[in-house]
Amino acid sequence: MDGLMDEGLAERDRDPADRRRYRISLTPAGRGALDRALAVIERVERETLAPLTAEERKQLHALVAKVFAN
Fold first, then answer.
1. Structural Rg of the chain based on CA atoms
2. Residue of 8, 11, 31, 54 with fewest CB within 10 Å of its CB?
3. What angle do CA 64, 36, 43 make, to 5 degrees?
4. How far apart are CA 22 and CA 20, in angstroms?
5. Nearest to 30 by CA among 3, 55, 50
6. Element (H, E) at 11
7. Total-model pTM
8. What is the mean pLDDT of residues 22-43?
9. Alpha-helix residue ranges (DSSP H) falling in the chain
10. φ/ψ of residue 60, rounded to 5
11. Could you tell me the end-to-end alpha-carbon distance of the chain, in angstroms, rounded to an integer?
12. What average pLDDT does the structure give for the chain?
């Protein structure tokens, strides 16, 4: 978290409803970085899975979810 804050991507402030808690939020720069990262992930996933049919993608997703559930 400190690294994100140092880079100006996130900020922390006190929760006005409960001063014992902090709220973490993205800055506009953080939102932009997240949007760019999500676009890269989407492109890489689309290119990587291009050889698979829609049904094969669903099957792969189910298998990966099963592996990570255990």
1. 18
2. 54
3. 50
4. 7
5. 3
6. strand 10-15
7. 0.71
8. 96
9. 2-6, 28-48, 54-69
10. -60, -45
11. 28
12. 95
pLDDT at position 53 = 96
pLDDT tier at 39, thresholds 50, 70, 90:
very high
Q: Is the pLDDT of residue 70 over 90?
A: no
CA distance 47 to 11: 34
* Residue 11 one-letter amino acid: E
Nearest alpha-carbon partner for 30 in 13, 3, 12, 8: 8
Residue matched to tokens 């899975």: 49
Our CA angle for 22, 26, 29, nearest 5°, is: 145
Assess whether pLDDT exceeds 90 at residue 36: yes
